[in-house]
Amino acid sequence: MITFDGVTKRFPGGMTAVDDLDLEVPEGQVVVFVGPSGCGKTTTLRMVNRMIEPTDGRISIAGDDIMAVSAPALRRGIGYVIQQIGLFPHRTIGENIATVPQLLGWDGQRTTDRVQELADVVGLPDDVLDRYPHQLSGGQRQRVGVARALAVDPPVMLMDEPFGAVDPIVRSRLQDEFLRLQDDVRKTILFVTHDIDEAIKMGDRIAIFSEGGVLEQYDTPENILAEPANDFVSDFLGSERGLKRLALIPASNVEAEAGPVVSRDDRLDSAAETARRYGTDWVVVLDTDGGVVGWIAADQLAGDGTVADLSPRPFRVLVRADDSLRAALNAMVISHTGVAVRVSDDSRYEGVLTRAALTGELK
Ligand SMILES: Nc1ncnc2c1ncn2[C@@H]1O[C@H](COP(=O)(O)OP(=O)(O)OP(=O)(O)O)[C@@H](O)[C@H]1O
Ligand SMILES: [Mg+2]
User: Fold this and answer.
1) Mind listing the domains of the chain with CATH numbers?
2) Any alpha helices (H) in the chain, and if so which ranges?
3) Residue nearest to atom 6 of ligand 1 (CA)
4) 122 pLDDT exceeds 70?
5) What is the pLDDT of residues 239-262, one digit of tens each?
6) Ligand 1 touching residue 262 (CB < 6 A)
7) Which of 26, 290, 320, 329 is most buried, judging by how many CB atoms fall within 10 Å of its CB?
């Protein structure tokens, strides 16, 4: 959808902000530009809507060179969320969202309807539309920025640190809402951040830049975490690369092992034998429907009687197929058993996940 072909930007004075960039942004995907301050992210974004002209190279959208259309016509098809939001302080929120529809000469009713619709889409309460930007919270202002960019339903969106100015909790909520919204609207989006965790969460693909506008790696988050192209990329990914990778892999990827399973009417000596056979010092207790009751330490499985005579301890966390392997690891480290118990959607026992299985998956 968007193609960069040998794009370079040198500012007067010889400073190279973007260096010979080749990159393809597939239609309907979110591509995240990430990298340290000054590595040319904003410059690259602004070249797409011609607020900055490249020194060299070519950018095309849907196959058309962007220099072949007038800048205003080009910008009509591109929603732009500016770094630091950039709302007009002396216009109401409603007027801010209506900026582009008004430029395009939409009639009053159509504009009002669209503003209302977008306020709903991004989760802004109705009563903010008549207020001014300084009368909103930071998170609300960021939603206005997104609504304004979406106003004429452009196929392409440029978003420059759209959630940069809010606290981590609000930021995480805005990210979730944005991903839900993108599921419906399927825009082609260039999204800038300097936060690698935001990049991993938001991006179908990530482009990692270094100082001087050099593209170091361009790939899916999974592939980048699995195989960083060089030291710059692995440093940028940080020390928890393994954990970040686990967070992207569903628990269904690794095979659950049968595990030492007993039922309540099993005799204690037979339950003890089950633990011995699996080499564990615990057993999992299931009810007659295959639901997980809890676990019992093997040293309690002594004497006459049945498992029903004992009180199993509950697993604090159970893992389902679409939970991440990071969630599975969490379940392992907080359980005395050292394993994660996986259950089906209707809460029936499927087996146990071991640390060795996680390690195997990361190889
Ligand atoms: N108009 C300009 N004239 C000269 N140099 C510029 C101009 N605009 C940007 N630069 C320089 O180009 C480089 C890239 O800037 P850019 O704004 O693209 O960085 P960025 O990656 O968006 O950084 P940040 O994360 O801080 O927003 C920087 O070194 C910057 O100082
Ligand atoms: Mg920037």
Assistant:
1) 2-249 (3.40.50.300), 252-362 (3.10.580.10)
2) 41-48, 71-76, 93-97, 99-103, 108-121, 138-150, 168-185, 196-202, 221-226, 231-237, 241-248, 268-278, 325-334, 355-362
3) 11
4) yes
5) 888 999 999 999 999 999 999 999
6) no
7) 329
